[in-house]
Write a structure and sequence with these properties.
By secondary structure, this protein is mainly alpha-helical. The protein has one domain. Helix content is 87%, strand content 0%. The longest helix has 48 residues. The model has no long low-confidence stretch (mean pLDDT 88). This is DUF5362 domain-containing protein. It comes from Flavobacterium rhizosphaerae. Keywords: Membrane, Transmembrane, Transmembrane helix.
């Protein structure tokens, strides 16, 4: 015999106020995602500039072949940043579009899909933050070890 709690049979209803808040959230999320795509394009443009003219400028600055390598490394770095930036922006955009359609159609499945994209957005940003914090911690340990070794 299965015991079902009251929460398992509970159906969530969105009030008009909640729908209005969600519609406003979707508008701002879409705006932020579009701005994110613009910055993504700028990152890619800068990466291409570093691959072409940046390498030449650095090479002519007296760095020689090392300057060309530095330009390519900077270009690769910017492409990696752009790639990492793409996913959270895409998830945010999909959340905004699907939430707007879900509210317009009163479609619960589409609303669930939109929240799935919002979850993916926050999950990606959270994992990325953990990685960045780990890199900071490792860098700090290396610096402390270097200072201790030099004493």
């Amino acid at each position: 015999m299965e015991d079902n709690s009251a929460f398992e049979s509970f159906e969530l209803q969105l009030t008009e106020g909640a729908k209005a808040f969600l519609a406003e959230i979707a508008k701002w999320a879409r705006f932020l995602a579009i701005i994110g795509f613009v910055f993504l394009g700028i990152f890619i443009l800068f990466a291409l500039v570093m691959f072409t003219t940046g390498a030449g400028v650095l090479m002519n600055s007296g760095m020689g072949a090392m300057g060309a390598g530095a330009g390519a490394i900077m270009g690769v770095y910017l492409l990696i940043v752009a790639l990492l930036y793409f996913f959270p922006v895409r998830y945010l955009y999909l959340f905004a579009i699907k939430a707007k359609k879900a509210l317009a159609e009163s479609n619960s499945e589409r609303l669930e899909e939109s929240f799935s994209n919002l979850k993916s957005h926050y999950k990606f940003v959270g994992i990325l933050m953990i990685i960045v914090l780990a890199i900071y911690a490792i860098s700090l340990l290396i610096i402390i070890a270097g200072v201790a070794a030099s004493m």
